[in-house]
Write a structure and sequence with these properties.
The complex is a heterodimer.
Chain A lengths: L11 H4 L5 H16 L6 H26 L7 H16 L6 H25 L4 H20 L9 H8 L1 E5 L3 E4 H18 L2 H11 L1 H6 L4 H27 L9 H11 L11 H20 L4 H25 L3
Antiparallel strand pairs in A: 1-2
Chain B lengths: L13 H24 L7 H9 L2 H15 L7 H16 L6 H24 L5 H19 L13 H4 L1 E2 L2 E2 H19 L1 H11 L1 H6 L4 H27 L6 H4 L2 H11 L11 H21 L3 H20 L8
Helix pairs in contact in B: 1-14, 3-8, 3-11, 3-13, 3-14, 4-5, 4-6, 4-11, 5-6, 5-11, 8-9, 9-11, 13-14, 13-15
The chains are: A mainly alpha, B mainly alpha.
């Protein structure tokens, strides 16, 4: 490989292998954290980090489906809130309830995604407005359901996915269940986006809906499916987040923007046509690593918002600049 | 009638009258509800003024948002601009009547800077306006809540006249909102900038080829939008007697201002619409609010219905469009 990359002087553009800069960013950030806080290099350190990032990573993988298809889904945060609050209301402290609550929540999520998709595809409401409206509505539903203050708590069987660590694992000593979920759902999302016909159709629809339609892609069905996938990942993220952090009324708020930011850091193109699931997950890791770094630097919570805003604008501006320079 | 087909422009144009239809429908609904509930005491001029007076913040914000949407852009940072300008107003004034003018100037400068930044990021860095203004919103909110986490400063009694003073039964602020709307209408209808706004929103490339400096028009629209949001923040500070960093987000002014603009018949894709439609949208929204109040709808149910109504209202216009949307 090193021998092949030698004659790169004549075609400098082709010389270096094209690595998505997000992976470099993640590695750099993780190294910075380890330097500042050596305890992060221990299994408890990085496993807790991965555990913390799981919900956002799965969510941004799902958000990518909608972004690649050319839309936005701002309702995911409220779906997470609804999942956590609804589960705690239904569970009524019964450990056996988990087995029907999670499928029920996935069903609710699928319906929400379906409504989002139908409203966007057939009523032609721009996805931003449609999903913002859905966000307001679902937050209201969550409040209605809980009467303003959630009662009850999540049973341990429910919190298993977000909180439990498998101990005595060789080499890495402990393995949180959340990290297994991250790998499993990450692979599923990757497979769906990059190895199936559906994934190719998603890219086609996002790139040029008219061309996709003429090529025989069922545009409406593909877009609706993207919203359903996004809503389902939001439910999963809600289950994991609720398991890790417990019940609170605004647990999911802000996640919709973090998911979009993560996807954008991972090089996803807004308004469709380009994006990669592993890169979006890496984007989530990068975002969480930045937040961790800010914490280590002793910067207050609001600074996160400023940094997130700057990253969001910066990443999109950079992507636009690169696209323009490469003439695509 | 006759066998010659009517020329296209004589046909009844639904888009043109939709906001009027919606306005009349919500007025009819409101009156019908009051009569059914037997609460005719709500059918007074004072109550009408009260209904309109509740949505002045939204109205002023929506006037600015109309400009942003007309140039085919959008501004999601208005809510945090409202919070920021309300806090700046009350902190700079801090109960001292002598500081009223400096405070207003400072806030307007803040609005202009935010609008300029939004416009520059959108036009020069070519960032998608949704993302640019969302990012800006996060930045403003972060800076604001870094320094303040509660009501800060207070507004002198002299300045509260802006929100509470009246001419007869009509509040100054209501008059102010309609004067502002009139100015906006005048600019859009009669000035060169106004016609440029419509050209750029209708077809940016054509506008550029026609010699319009499209970037400047977009930046100008964003400056106007943020200025209006800043004025809305000043009004809110005057009404609440103080500013807090969450008041903009709490009122969901970003989404609601977009929703009323769209209900008023301005097309999200830009280039078509106008101020009076937006004002109709604002009145429709406050009527819906009053209908909920008269009917005694629970606060959470109200929120659910609001979300549905916003989407339904946008769908009311959008459903007939042929093109797929983003």
């Amino acid at each position: 490989m090193s021998a092949q990359s030698l004659p790169q002087t004549e075609t400098p553009k082709r010389g270096l292998p094209k690595i998505n800069p997000v992976y470099v960013l993640v590695v750099a950030l993780i190294l910075a954290i380890v330097v500042m806080n050596p305890a992060f290099g221990e299994p408890t350190g990085y496993m807790n980090f991965l555990k913390r990032v799981t919900a956002l990573a799965i969510l941004s993988g799902g958000a990518l489906y909608v972004i690649v298809s050319g839309g936005f889904d701002l309702s995911v945060g409220s779906i997470m809130t609804l999942t956590v609050i609804g589960s705690s209301m239904l569970a009524s402290n019964d450990p056996n309830s988990t087995y029907w609550i999670i499928p029920l929540m996935l069903g609710i999520g699928a319906v929400v995604g379906l409504i989002n998709g139908l409203v966007v595809s057939y009523l032609k409401v721009p996805s931003l407005i449609a999903t913002l409206g859905m966000m307001i509505t679902l937050n209201g539903v969550a409040f209605m359901w809980s009467g303003g203050a959630p009662r009850g708590y999540l049973p341990d069987t429910f919190r298993f996915f977000g909180r439990y660590n498998i101990t005595d694992v060789p080499v890495i000593t402990l393995l949180p269940v959340a990290v297994i979920c991250l790998v499993v759902f990450g692979v599923i999302l990757w497979w769906g986006m990059h190895r199936t016909n559906f994934g190719r159709m998603l890219h086609a629809v996002g790139d040029n809906p008219q061309a996709a339609r003429l090529a025989g892609v069922p545009v409406e069905r593909v877009r609706i499916s993207a919203f359903v996938v996004s809503a389902l990942t939001a439910v999963l993220a809600g289950v994991i987040l609720g398991g890790r952090a417990g019940v609170s009324v605004n647990i999911g708020s802000g996640f919709e923007l973090q998911a979009i930011t993560a996807a954008v850091i991972g090089g996803a193109q807004l308004l469709g046509g380009r994006g990669s699931v592993p890169a979006a997950i890496a984007g989530a890791l990068a975002l969480e690593a930045i937040f961790t770094l800010l914490n280590l630097l002793g910067l207050a919570q609001p600074v996160r918002l400023v940094v997130q805003g700057l990253i969001l604008i910066g990443a999109v501006a950079l992507a636009t600049y690169q696209r323009k320079r490469s003439g695509r | 009638m006759s066998d010659t087909p009517l020329p296209a422009r004589r046909r009844f144009r639904f888009e043109r009258h939709a906001s009027t239809i919606l306005l009349l429908a919500s007025v009819a609904l409101y009156v019908a509800l009051i009569i059914i509930m037997g609460q005719t005491r709500f059918l007074t001029l004072e109550n009408l003024v009260a209904i309109l007076g509740r949505s002045i913040t939204l109205g002023i914000t929506a006037i600015g948002q109309t400009f942003a949407i007309l140039v085919a852009s959008i501004d999601l940072s208005v809510a945090s601009v409202i919070s920021a300008s309300a806090v700046v107003t009350s902190v700079v004034m801090n109960g001292d009547p002598a500081m009223m003018l400096p405070a207003v100037i400072a806030v307007l400068a803040l609005g202009a800077v935010v609008g300029l930044a939004n416009g520059l990021v959108i036009t020069k860095l070519e960032v998608n306006p949704l993302i640019a203004t969302l990012g800006m919103s996060l930045i403003i909110q972060g800076v604001l809540s870094y320094y303040y986490n509660n009501f800060a400063g207070n507004v002198p009694a002299e300045f509260q006249i802006f929100a509470y003073g009246t001419v007869g039964i009509v509040p100054f602020s209501l008059v102010f909102m309609f004067v502002l709307a009139g100015c906006a209408w005048f600019v859009l209808r009669f000035s060169r900038f106004g016609s440029d706004v419509y050209s750029v929103g209708g077809n940016k490339d054509a506008a550029r080829l026609a010699g319009i400096k499209t970037d400047r028009v977009v930046i100008g629209a964003h400056v106007i939008c943020s200025l209006c949001a800043a004025i809305a923040g000043i009004y809110l500070a005057s009404r609440l007697r103080s500013g807090a960093p969450w008041i903009g987000a709490e009122g969901v002014y970003d989404l609601e201002s977009i929703a009323v603009v769209v209900i008023g018949g301005t097309v999200l894709a830009g280039g078509r619409g106008g101020i009076w439609g937006t004002m109709a949208g604002v009145i429709i929204f406050s009527l819906i609010d009053s209908i909920f109040n008269v009917a005694g709808v629970d606060a959470f149910v109200k929120q659910v219905l609001r979300g549905i109504i916003i989407v339904a209202a946008v769908a009311f216009y959008a459903a007939r469009s042929k093109r797929p949307v983003a």
